[in-house]
Amino acid sequence: MKQGKVWLVGAGPGDMGLFTLKGMEVLSRAEVVVYDSLVGQSILSRIPAGVRLIDVGKRASHHTVPQENINEILLSEARKGLRVVRLKGGDPFLFGRGGEELEVLRENGIPYEVVPGVTSPLAVPAYNGIPVTHRDLCSSVHVITGHRREGMEYDIDFQALVRTKGTLIFLMGVASLSFICESLLEAGMEPDMPAAVLSRGTTAGQKRIVATVSTLFSETQRQGVETPAIIVVGKVCALSEQFAWYEALPLAGWKVVVTRPKNLISKTAERLREKGAEVLELPAIRTVPMKNQTRLYQAFERLGTYRWIVFTSPTGVQIFFDEMRRKNLDIRSLAGVKVAVIGEGTKKALAEHGIYADLMPETYDGDSLGAALVRKVNKGEHVLIPRAERGNEKLVARLEDEGAVVEDIPTYQTIFEQSRLIDEKKEFESGSVDCAVFTSASTVRGFVEGTRGLDYTTVRAACIGKQTKAAADSYGMQTFMAEKATIDSLIELVEKMKRSV
């Protein structure tokens, strides 16, 4: 039996961009993931399919699974010879009880590694324009747990903290905010010392309340605060308005669901994150090659008879060339054949195989592609269309009406998909999602399949083109359409939608 191993991985404070490269690499090879409630949704959505998931649901003052049981889970799973990732919010060794978990593993001879995470005491102030140290204001930073065990007194020397004259950061302390502020004042801290409560940092729900030690509690009572949140005390808090940068991003404060297939989602998600959005990657569909590619293989045997090959998606391009390689064919087999593509994404996918499209319509949809092709295809010419099992029937009909001989061959299927970890319907019903991005009619249908019972009139839908918009309209969504059927234009549309709210 193979040797199991445990990785303690820090997931950071929430923003997917703050998850480390090593953390992502380890997560991609996990067989079991034991995760906390504070792990960001965008990171949970990147856990590979097929991985066994164990939710231990830890939050301050609310442990779904006691720490002793978590230790036993890690030990038991590793003893089965599995690659176990213990995924923790923040950093495993900063109030994450990672040391306790390693003690058990070490005592039982289980190999382990630790992957540090970006910790909230540094990242959350940074996202709020607060440098935790500043040459002119302070030269030290101190991280303190604000959580107090039930029935026990605080074991904190507040006078020592005040004497440091450094930045003080309390984690898990919102429930004790009044006591913390009063204790600092009793220990001699100036009443007008700047202080802040920073909630849901690095996410779309990020909120900052800045006041003074003497007024912070009353201000949070007035404005309200959601957890998770941290308390920052020190002169550096006064810099927040001057240095704030996150809210200046065009999509700051917006949570966006992207529904593209997993193999195509990264560019769209990356562009949205660059603009400041919190992105949930929740593919509504996945594409799988047809198990039986006999018809495509037969077409390969007569490639020289086709005047045109027509690709209607990047996936269609990829599968076509994957199957060519499987049959030991290269691009010389396509000599003399012209190639048409539906749009920029498909054109780019084709170019990656060393072939440049001969035809692309000005408007990137099936109807426009058909209109452009009929002007180029002569009567009796053979046209090959390798594409999804459920394709645009109008495209074939229009070519055949003009006398072309069309072989419409399904090379892949579109399968509806649903997240195992995130209740997408609940996300929309709670109002936490501002926009859903759809790049095809099939992503709309997949989204609906995975959120049955949702009131779709509440969904703002950013659609890449006419067919996608028509599908979203049919379910009563609030639909918006990009000027061009490109990812760049789609991102611009989401920005416009936010500005109009």
What is this structure's SSE topology?
Elements: E1 5-10, H1 21-28, E2 32-35, H2 41-44, E3 52-55, E4 58-59, E5 62-63, H3 67-79, E6 83-88, H4 98-107, E7 112-115, H5 120-127, E8 141-145, H6 158-164, E9 167-171, H7 177-186, E10 194-199, E11 207-212, H8 216-223, E12 229-233, H9 240-243, E13 255-258, H10 265-274, E14 278-281, E15 285-289, H11 294-300, E16 306-311, H12 314-326, E17 338-341, H13 344-351, H14 366-374, E18 382-388, H15 393-401, E19 405-416, H16 424-429, E20 435-438, H17 441-450, E21 460-463, H18 466-473, E22 478-481, H19 487-500
Parallel strand pairs: 1-6, 1-7, 2-3, 2-6, 8-9, 13-14, 13-20, 16-17, 16-18, 18-19, 20-21, 21-22
Antiparallel strand pairs: 4-5, 9-12, 10-11, 10-12, 15-19
